[in-house]
Amino acid sequence: MAAPRLVRMSPDSVTPGSVRSAAEVNEEIRALWRRTGGTLSAEERAEYELLVVEWAAAIRSGVVTAA
After folding, report:
1. Helices (H), 1-67
2. Which of 3, 19, 53, 61 places its Cα 20 to 30 Å from the Cα of 11?
3. Chain centre to alpha carbon of residue 56
């Protein structure tokens, strides 16, 4: 089974209101680390970096909503 292809997105391209919760993204990050045994290939590193950007956006969204 082939791994899903990674689509690069700019953090600025996230549509307000379409961001997954920080908890959802965090779980995906954890699953990535479990799946790879803690060693990331170049493609997995790129996926991880996008997930971290998405997680940060979700955190910022939560802070703005709370304010």
Report:
1. 22-36, 42-66
2. 3
3. 8
